[in-house]
Design a protein that fits this description.
Elements: E1 2-4, H1 14-23, E2 28-31, E3 34-38, H2 43-60, E4 66-69, E5 73-74, E6 81-82, E7 87-90, E8 102-103, E9 106-113, H3 118-122, H4 124-129, E10 137-142, E11 148-153, E12 160-165, E13 171-174, E14 179-182, H5 183-186
Parallel strand pairs: 5-8, 9-10
Antiparallel strand pairs: 1-3, 2-3, 2-6, 4-7, 7-9, 10-11, 11-12, 13-14
Length: about 200
């Protein structure tokens, strides 16, 4: 999640930004020389990220891929845009080297929507994510209702198909990766609450 960082007046280079992140206790996303601090998340958001990460790891790790969540950055546009997606799946050998600070070849990106960031996940992030040649799937997960949106790249094109799943029994299918999961599995063990009940995990009631 993004919030504006009020004290940033000078644009940073990517190298300066990466050095900042190494020392900072707060994560920041980088866009065109500016940095924005990441806001705290709700408990529901955190649980959904954990569920999705576990489901993806179970399938993709035995196939030589890796799954990362929240604390790993993706270089979406070189020198311009470096966000922290909620969940990342990558199978590229370059990305799997342990000394890497940035993922550059993601296959799947996942964002859990909140009322403060849904417009960014659907707008700025999606406009830029879809430019990644390696990206085949972009997933949006609602934390207030059992709703999952899957954006699927049509093979050998820059065109995408958007599919919405709203029933717990719906099966979210990733045919190019021979993978599927149910909406029920994504929301397993999670009690959804209305947006008005949101209390981020770094705030006190």
């Amino acid at each position: 999640m993004l919030t504006n960082s009020p004290n940033q007046s000078n644009r940073l280079t990517v190298d300066e930004y990466l050095r900042l992140e190494e020392k900072s206790e707060v994560r920041h996303e980088f866009y065109n020389g500016e940095v924005n601090a990441m806001a705290g998340t709700t408990l529901t958001h955190n649980l959904l990220v954990d569920n999705v990460k576990d489901l993806l790891k179970r399938h993709f790790r035995p196939r030589g891929c890796q799954v990362f969540s929240e604390s790993v950055k993706v270089e979406v546009i070189r020198g311009v845009y470096i966000p922290y997606p909620d969940v990342i799946v990558t199978c590229h050998p370059f990305d799997l080297r342990g000394e890497q600070y940035l993922i550059r070849q993601p296959r799947i990106l996942v964002e859990v929507l909140s009322k403060s960031t849904a417009h960014i996940d659907r707008g700025l992030k999606w406009r830029n994510y879809r430019k990644l040649p390696s990206l085949w799937y972009y997933v949006l997960i609602d934390q207030y209702s059992t709703t999952v949106e899957l954006f699927s790249r049509i093979e050998q094109t820059d065109e995408w198909i958007n599919t919405i799943y709203e029933s717990l029994d719906d099966i979210v299918v990733f045919p190019r990766l021979d993978f599927e999961l149910t909406v029920r599995a994504i929301y397993d063990g999670i009690e959804l609450r209305p947006e008005t009940d949101d209390i981020p995990t770094d705030e006190h009631p």
